[in-house]
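Sanity check record (used in CI):
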Amino acid sequence: MVAIIKTGYAIHKVFYYNENKVKENEAECIGAGNYPIDADKMGLTVKLNRFLKQLELNENVKRNSVHISINFDPSENHSKEKLMAIADTYMEKIGFGQQPYLVYQHHDSGHPHIHLVTINVQRDGTRIDMQNIGKNRSEPARKEIEERFGLVKAQGNKNSPDFTLKPIISQKIQYGRSESKKAITNVLGQVLSLYKYASFPELNAVLKQYNVLADRGNEDSKMFKAKGLMYRILDENGKPIGVPIKASLFHNKPTLKFLEEKFAFNKTNDVSDIRRVKNAIDMAFLRTEISLNQLVLLLEKEGINTVFRKNTEGLIYGITYVDHTTKCVFNGSTLGKQYSAKAIQERCASINPAEQKMTISVIEKSYEITFEASKSEIIAALFGDDFRDNKYIGSSTVMGQLAEMLTQSEQTAVYLPYELRNKKKKRKGQSNNR
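Expected output for Relaxase/mobilization nuclease domain-containing protein:
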């Protein structure tokens, strides 16, 4: 079980996101807590007004909406009754047992999960403290619930060592398979509200993984000068296909103004979220002779996608990390110099130019990061099925990497993480020549 907690400023956006899923037959409201009547007997107005009335008790609390997703192992298939029992227990354990909340079971992903919608203003008008709620309340609750309900454990389970949270969106959009606006709405509804991105490159790093692009046009175009924005579907080669749709035509109005406000708000990142990505990268480099493509695949096993940006000559000049577990997006430079595109390439084992060129092509194809087509046969030719099965890169779990490192007779990696370097400062007046 994995629980993710997000807070926001507008309860109605979170509410209608889930209700639109119900309308599209991709979710259902299976229960409610601290409502006067059962969920199946309430209309939209009754559900939403219960939140709005209580929020009026303290209008000074601006960040008042709470959106929680509880995710289960793909092998689990729990009844609605058990899901409600898990939700009720979880809410009680994290201090929201007396709050009004709605529980939605979603069917739009590769793993079973539920969404809980609530507020952090209590009946007496006081605010529930959200500081460190994940570490201090959610984690202990998760572990206790896993034991009580016999759930697959997110950590330390021998039968499922690679249980990691998959992206909420189960698959990329395929043009022609469904109505374009509906398909884009589905992606935007989840990415825009759940992920933390602070620029267009960071946003598109996420959207492109689901074949969607936020497009402002060229700087000389009328659309760019008029502060317009369109959303487009990309084909399997990362090229725009079909008719672009204006941002203003979507019900949640994901316009340029909306995104710029999100960019400003998302610039402040939780230190623990940054540390998770940095640690995952550093753990990957505990291996010897790691190449760029191996790093990408190792991070993917940890729920982190690596997106590269390159110039017209095909050289990588930028790197973005998309963490699907914390829903955070980071440019390499945000994490520190040693996580930038240049430093990452230097940290990787030396490979000949021909192999490096092929590696870049594979990465582009895997994550759809440019509009240039690449041959899918390269993957099989370069890596083969054994590599896809991780025969050569080994387990990506922390314990697996440490065990491998400790049992190796010789360490050939020469890179030392920045934090571990012990640089001696020269004393004042000390001469360089002795």
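The chain has a mean pLDDT of 78. If this sentence no longer matches the regenerated tokens, the check is flagged for review.
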